[in-house]
Design brief:
Layout: E1 6-7, E2 13-16, E3 22-26, E4 28-30, H1 32-37, H2 40-51, H3 71-88, H4 99-105, E5 108-113, E6 119-126, E7 130-136, H5 141-157, E8 163-167
Parallel strand pairs: 1-8, 5-7
Antiparallel strand pairs: 2-3, 3-4, 6-7, 6-8
């Protein structure tokens, strides 16, 4: 299987195999991500949905916006999509109590996981698991909250990419603003 494009940096390669295994390479392998996706909790969820003959998860809408040309474009697009989602989900302007619950309610698997310190989260889509978000469990609560929202934005805006990894080193990329 060809290696999917990874948003943010050309030095990262992400390979998603048919058994939902994930290997992220950034010079050295970070193989515990694979273990996280294959953990009992996630595996049981996938198996249960399969046993119940549930249809594939259909996530939230995909916003097909042009690539931002600069930081201001990226911020405006983010604000536009956030407002559209708040309307679509009838959220109003109050804080969202639990981002993970909201994301899961949109048929996206969302969970915390032990990730490298410089990795705040990642978004994946694959035919065998649907849409999937992981955030760094070791980060402070406010950072995890932001990371869930940020990765949800990747699910809404960057679905043409099978994977995005949010890392400190790619924070200046317009898709990470």
């Amino acid at each position: 299987m060809p290696t999917p494009k990874c948003s943010g940096t050309s030095t990262e390669a992400i390979q998603i195999a048919s058994n939902t295994a994930l290997v992220v390479t950034t010079g050295a392998r970070i193989s515990h991500l694979r273990d996280t996706l294959q953990s009992d909790k996630h595996q049981r969820g996938f198996e249960l949905e399969h046993l119940l003959d549930r249809p594939p998860r259909v996530g939230p809408p995909s916003y097909d916006l042009p690539q931002p040309r600069n930081i201001m474009d990226a911020v405006e697009q983010g604000n536009f999509v956030a407002e559209q989602e708040r309307r679509r989900l009838s959220l109003g302007h109050n804080p969202i109590p639990d981002m993970s619950d909201l994301i899961n309610s949109q048929n996206i698997w969302a969970s915390g996981a032990e990730l490298p310190d410089d990795m705040s989260g990642l978004f994946l889509q694959h035919s065998s698991i649907g849409l999937f978000i992981l955030v760094n469990f070791g980060h402070p609560r406010a950072r995890k909250r932001f990371s869930y929202a940020h990765e949800y934005a990747h699910a809404l805006l960057d679905r043409r990419d099978p994977a995005t990894v949010s890392r400190e080193e790619n924070r200046r990329n317009l898709s990470e603003v």
